[in-house]
Amino acid sequence: MISLNYRDARPIYEQIRDELRKLIVTGALSSEEKLPSVRSLAAELAINPNTIQRAYNELEQEGYICSVPGKGSFASADAMAGAARKKELLEKLRELMRELRWLGVTREELLSLVEEGEPSD
Amino acid sequence: MIEVKNVVKRFDGFAALDGATLTVPKGGVYGLVGPNGAGKTTLLRHLTGIFRQDAGEILIGGEPVWENPALKARMAVIPDDWYYFLQATTADMMRFYRGFYPQFSMERYNRLREAFAIDEKKTIRRLSKGMQKQAAFWLTLSCMPDYLILDEPVDGLDPVMRRQVWSLVMGDVAERGTTVLVSSHNLRELEDVCDHVGIMDRGKVLLERSLAQLQDNMVKLQVVFPDGVTEVPPELPVLHASRIGRIHTLIMRMGAREAERLVAQYSPLLVDAVPLTLEEIFIYELGGADYAVKDIVL
Amino acid sequence: MNWEVPTMRSKTSSFKGGGFSRTLLGKNLTRFWPLWAVYTAAWLIMGPLMQLMLLSGASAQGRTQQRLAADAAGQLLNVGTKGGLWMGVIFGCLFAMALFSYLCSPRATGLMHAFPIRREGLFVTNYLSGVAAFLGADVLTLALTAAVQGAAGVLVWKNLLIWFACAAGMMLFFYSFAVFCAMFTGQLLAIPAFYVALNGLAAGVNTLVQSFASAFLYGYTGGGTPAWVRWLTPAWKLGRDVNTNSTWSSRLDTNINYRVEGLESVAVYAAAGLAFAALALLVCRVRRSETAGDTVTVGWAGKLFRVGVSVCCALSLGQGLYYLIWNQLSRGGNSLTGILACMVFLGLVGYFAAEMLLRKSFRVFRSSWKGAAAVTAALLIFGACVRADVTGVVARVPAASDIRTLIVSVGGQNYCSAGIRDPELIEKFREVHRAVIGERETMQQREKRSYAADADQQNSWITLEYQLKNGSSVRRNYEIYYTPDEVKDAGTAISKLAELVTEPAFQRANLLGTFLEQQGRITGGEMSFTAYRPSGSGAYGDYAAFDAAAAQQLYDALCADIDQGHFGVNQFDQDRWDQETYSNNLTLYYSIPGREADGGGKEMDSINVEFSVRCTNLRAALEKTGALNGAVLETYAQRDAWNGKAPAEAETHAVIGGADGPTEILVD
What we know:
The complex is a heterotrimer. By secondary structure, chain A is mainly α. Chain A has helices at 12-25, 38-45, 49-62, 83-102, 107-117; strands at 65-68, 72-75. Chain A is elongated. The model of chain A has no long low-confidence stretch (mean pLDDT 81). Chain B has two domains: 2-211, Rossmann fold (3-Layer(aba) Sandwich); 214-297, 2-Layer Sandwich (Alpha-Beta Plaits). In chain B, 45% of the residues are buried. By secondary structure, chain C is α+β, with helices and mostly antiparallel strands. Chain C is 58% helix and 12% strand. In chain C, α6 (157-183) packs parallel to α10 (263-286), α7 (190-216) packs across α11 (299-329) and α14 packs antiparallel against α17. Chain C starts with 21 loop residues before the first helix and ends in an 11-residue tail after the last helix. In chain C, 37% of the residues are buried. Chains B and C meet through α2, α3 and α6 of B and α1 and α4 of C.
């Protein structure tokens, strides 16, 4: 489910955090689904449980998951919770568009990309 | 909690430990890294009550370890040179361990039989070195220790077995709050499993840090300054700087965001935060090139 | 980081580990089973199996029950005393080596010391494992022997228990002592080395020091083996003390009434064994785990080891080298400088060798020269002390009031030896002793000259052993070199001695000492002849036999001659001795009252007298007995003259001697 890349220079907790986030945004982990416990994930990945806990904490701050005391962590149902993350991502997107424009990608091409990427309801 | 305070140990006048100090928080996984001959094994032998220090204090859970069977009953150790009786099988050694450790769990032993594919009726001497190490893990983990002391534990294990073993140890840490002190000459090996790392050399612990703290407090920025700025502005608190073409690489002791904000004042053409590897962090922490750090942490 | 996993606290408060460990005991008993098996098997062979063979084997056929019982008891007790000693000496060490071998391997030490058990717990468990192993084997042997003896109807529990006390007691001592030795080393093979060395150290050093002193202290000839040296040499002491005794019964044709003497020694050593075990425990507590693999594990013992090895090397190999090489180079007398040179050289060799063993390195010269210099200095000071005789050994003549008995042996023409209690006589010998000490310089010079075969110079010796009232003894032996003139010169030691040996009190003790002491009764006698009888059967080399009455008369005459000073004359004058002393020896047999007379065979107790022409009483008494039947007494000079002659002339001699025999006797 989660794979760690030891050649990746990112700290492990960041890798776990990013992997889990990807699982949530792609819908692989549906909303309100229970995430693996810190304990089982630590044993499964052979990773220090504190590291896992740290990734969980950050995801909770970003609003992707919420933890229920005594029950565990769950994928967040409320997508709006992640306001901070949204802002960060939009900033990144702006930067990317600037670079793409500089590389000669037209405005139309970018617009069609937006339409493409939009999940169909 | 494991506390080692200013421990000195001399062998025939040679100070194998020269004021070593370290602290392992309860439930923490502490990696002790250092080159061969740094004193890691000596320190661990003090922690397991084999050696007695010439000076200093060694406390586990607030109690001295020396000749303290009640405390040692809650500790288990895998030395780098595990001893087994000449003709003993794993089952024989299991009975021996079981006789000494009151918390020894047969249930755990039986469950772990599947994890380690070892014929317990076979003489340990006839097993390969890696298998012997696995047998040591099997018995040690069956002792249900609250404190686990591991000296170069995964040396000689193949990657699959390494993962297996770490997975079991991490399971214990998560489940039972086992405090683990593990030594290695390879920092990379410890990166995944440890939350604290101490660097040891020549009988001293040079520094110890929590990994989270380390990763949050040091950043590597690649910056292209606008035309006219050829040197790194002196007011920037830079630990280390280097330059390739117009790209400056700056190491700063702070969070990534704060560093980006500081650099933004000079309206750079490009700012990019690059993650630091653990090795790099230690190299810069220890003061870089003026110390032969590379030998220690790599 | 507030994340914390709830901990399952196990109930460890009830755990009181650290003492005796049954797990370790079980492990020891199973792990070293071959050793226990060999020990048990050895006892089973020496015990029940040998008893079985004795009691029901082929040799048992036709023996009476009484004899079988006696033989069985004898065998059992012999095996217990002598077998027990050797079993203890050998297996004591092997047991200790097995049980404490873990202390010689860093890996094993690491394992054992990391376990939740105290050092004392490990020691006590290991020690008791050994005790349990040998006690178990001994009890098994006891039980099976009892069964065998019981089946044969010769069971005596007392003997079995004595056997057990010997076997277990001696094993306890040697095992404990080996454990004690094991505590001081981290090398498995050093355990038997230390064990053997310490077992024999006292006796060895005693012998070596005495040999040194004998060579360089004028007159000193060793003080025997003091009791404490014997006690410090357990195997020797036990071997000497613990014995089986019995009395011969001609009725049963075997020895009966077997009993063991020296059981007190076994008890003392068994107690010492427990003391050694306690000491070993103390050493075990200060011994550091990291010394596994070291030759010596305890700091002060290391210093002792260096000095000890050095001194022992100097005393043994140093003296050996001296006698091997130096002594061959210089003729005449010992050279103190020479022996010190050899001793210092090998002392240094020993010191550095010990240092190399301790440090496991050959580069020890620079760091340990101070200690080596100290050892050298000590040896040189020792040599200087010997030369200066600081202990006063050379000049010592014990005070008259301290002396209980003086045993004097005098060489010369006729060996004399007497135990003297008479204070007057003792005083005279003390004077001779002082005179001899006074002539020391002359004697030592003459000793060197003696190698040059100085024709004029003769030599003799005297040994004085003063047995003091405090139980100790002083032994001196002097070579006395003299010229014939000096024997007559009243001022010299040799003249004093020559006079003293004619003293009736001395000769009485010399010739009749044992007889008088044992209160013997003369029963007969005989006298041999190497010459012919003038007439009669013509037998050669015959002897005359005397009956009790005749012998008693001869004895009375002998006493008269002693009292008149006829014995001991010419002790230091070879020529006159040969001319005056008869080659025919008189033997008087006597019996000792109270001693069980053994039917058949001759009396073994006898007085043997070599007498001279001066012994007028004896000569007259011999004539009177008539037993000589005309045989002629012949002096050594006469006999030699005859022996040296050609056969033809011997005929003449035969005529003179009044014999008619042929010449065969000449070549005798």
